[in-house]
Amino acid sequence: MKRVLYALVPVVIASVYFFGWRSLVTLVVVSVAGFLTEYAFTRTYKEPVTSAVFVTSFLFTLSLPPTLPLWMALVGIVFGVTFGKMVFGGFGRNIFNPALVGRAFIYVSFPVHMNSIWTEPVRGMVGGFARFAPDAVTQATPLRLLKEGVEVAWSKLLFGNTAGCLGETSAVLVTLGGLYIVWKKAANYRIVVSGLIGMLLIQSIFWKSGVQGATDPVSALLSGSFLFGLFFFATEPISASQLNEGRWIYGALIGVLTVIIRTFSGWAEGMMFAILLANIFAPIMDYGLRTLRSKRKTAEAQ
Asked: pLDDT (tens digit, 9 = 90+) per residue, 60-86?
């Protein structure tokens, strides 16, 4: 958990640079609320609050729009920790990623604030380090523009000088942080590799086939929350598949579902729903794979 937090530090700093000190204030408020929510449950059992709640709080905050009202962020983290984690018995027992449970709840509860109100990054050499929050408002993120057929420069997507959620705009920083946790084995590389293959394969097929709303695979990879979600949300060890074979399938499923949701639904982004759907099937998939293993061993023994 600490390694994931280390990997997120550059992303947090970048969020301040692009969107001002308000992003750090949101992170602190959400982290305190997440801690207190988990403490309200663990104190009954006289157990300590785990560091995992801070990972949940960091990921949840970095998945939010820059100007989301703080009270909405508080509602989201309290809901995520409570109904995404503690109702299942706490750390190590959750079926869904708690941060995404909280985000999904406020996404459907406050769709305008979560999906339609965006801000351009703060301009200038010092960027948001000299501002509390950005002023320039925009109605579209790069992913929405790409879906409408508007080209977006890869350089903006790589370095993060675009509208978007607090932690998803810079593909370079997200990838570096993601590779760090894979290297330190805090994230399973099988999920990442299969997710990339599944996404790029289906995206390329849709794009080459001329499917309406399908953009080129490189732009689709760099824009939105795909890389951030794949490295930091999909690889969450508790809600993902527990078997190596299952991890290959699990990652590929997320990649494929993301492209399908992005292309054919009314939502520009599909990563959140793809991961939550994969969370649903991970236990069933593991059960099926274990059953197949058992049958093979029995057949070999005979």
From this structure: 999 999 999 999 999 999 999 999 999
Q: Which of 16, 13, 60 is nearest to 35 (CA)?
A: 60
Pair of tokens at residue 103: 């985000």
Q: How far apart are the first and last CA of the chain?
A: 44
Please state the separation of Cα 215 from the chain's center in Å. 21
Please answer whether residues 227 and 221 qualify as being in contact, where contact means their C-beta atoms are separated by less than 8 angstroms: yes
Coil, helix or strand at residue 39 = helix
Whether this model's pTM surpasses 0.85 = yes
CA distance 142 to 211: 19
Q: Which residues pair with 137 in a beta bridge?
A: 119
121 contacts 134 by C-beta, under 8 angstroms: yes
Which domains does the chain show, CATH number per domain? 2-290 (1.10.3430)
Q: For residue 208, give Cα distances in angstroms to 145, 218, 226.
A: 19, 13, 20
The rounded Cα 302 to chain-centroid distance in angstroms is 46
